[in-house]
Amino acid sequence: MSPIVVAVDGPAGSGKSSVSIAAAERLGYAFLDTGAAYRALAWLGLERGVDLDDADAVVALLDDFDYRTVPGADGTIVHIGLHDVTTAIREPRVSAVVSDVARIPAVRSALNETFRRLIDATQVPGIVVEGRDITTVVAPDAAVRILLTASEEVRIARRSKDLAPAQAATAGQLRERDRRDAQVVDFMTAAPGVTTLDSTDLDFDQTVDAVVALVHERTGA
Ligand SMILES: Nc1ncnc2c1ncn2[C@@H]1O[C@H](COP(=O)(O)OP(=O)(O)OP(=O)(O)O)[C@@H](O)[C@H]1O
Ligand SMILES: Nc1ccn([C@@H]2O[C@H](COP(=O)(O)O)[C@@H](O)[C@H]2O)c(=O)n1
Questions:
Q1: pLDDT for 61-80, tens place per residue?
Q2: Per-residue b or e along 41-78, where b marks 16 or more CB atoms closer than 10 Å to that residue's CB
Q3: 17 assigned ligand-binding residue
Q4: 39-59 pLDDT, tens per residue?
Q5: Is the Cα torsion angle 187, 190, 194, 197 positive or negative in sign?
Q6: Taking CB atoms and a 6 Å cutoff, what residues make up the pocket around ligand 2?
Q7: What is the pLDDT, as a whole number, of residue 46?
Q8: Any idea which positions bind ATP (predicted)?
Q9: Is 81 a known ligand-binding residue?
Q10: What is the pTM of this model?
């Protein structure tokens, strides 16, 4: 049977991963972080010294992109081949270039196919899938579609807390990443049928509660 899909989109630092992981756990659902795949491909490009402005060279990386994920206690454990890149793909140097990879249409179609395969293979009743174009492109027919937002100021402040003091200045990087990503997909305005959840004035638990309540309301489960 097809899983219940909860699609969550939103800008950088809006809480998509952390809130989706917690909501999935409460619901007994699986979780899919689509940004991790874009980050892993960008990481591979950096490792290989590929010019990420060269679309053909980036697309060629897909032939050798052995991307694997395993659910971990704090989120998704990401491997490329035998190499654990879970931490490396979150480094500011990857965040700084991931949009270059994500703007390439052939990359988007290939990764979207991967995401749909992973969704179809879900072994539990549902899956929370988060990214930028899940509500609109990857799973537009999802049972629950959410645009998770928060003011830019609050998102930067939350992100600063995640980073080591030496890296705190890079929290502002998310503004530039949003600007570039928004040229490719619209994750700032809710498409028809998508519910906007603004967490600016909500704490973490209140935000998770709101997602879980919406899933119960929409699915009756
Ligand atoms: N409602 C909230 N109140 C306080 N902190 C929150 C809230 N939602 C998320 N956070 C915190 O904000 C930070 C950013 O969240 P998270 O990494 O989940 O965002 P994201 O949208 O997945 O970001 P990115 O797109 O950059 O990967 C985390 O430290 C998370 O715990
Ligand atoms: N559906 C998606 C998901 C992500 N991206 C790109 O990946 C980058 C990293 O995503 P995070 O969720 O980990 O921040 C993001 O900045 C986008 O460039 C995407 O295009 N579509």
A1: 999 999 999 877 777 899 99
A2: bbbbbbeeebebeebeebbebbeebebebeeeeebbbb
A3: yes
A4: 999 999 999 999 999 999 999
A5: positive
A6: 12, 34-35, 38-39, 98-99, 102, 131-134, 177, 181
A7: 98
A8: 10-18
A9: no
A10: 0.96
Nearest to 23 by CA among 162, 127, 156: 127
Which token pair is 140? 């537009």
Atom of ligand 2 nearest to the CA of 184: 20
pLDDT at residue 168, as a whole number: 64
Q: Would the annotation count 72 as a binding residue?
A: no
Q: How many domains in the chain?
A: 1
Residue type, 188: M
30: containing domain: 4-219
Distance 209 CA to ligand 1 centre (A): 15
Q: Which ligand is nearest to the CA of 211?
A: 1
Q: What CATH number does residue 126 fall under?
A: 3.40.50.300
Residue 29: C-alpha distances to residues 5, 21, 124, 127, 206 (Å) = 9, 9, 6, 5, 19
- The residue type of 93 is R
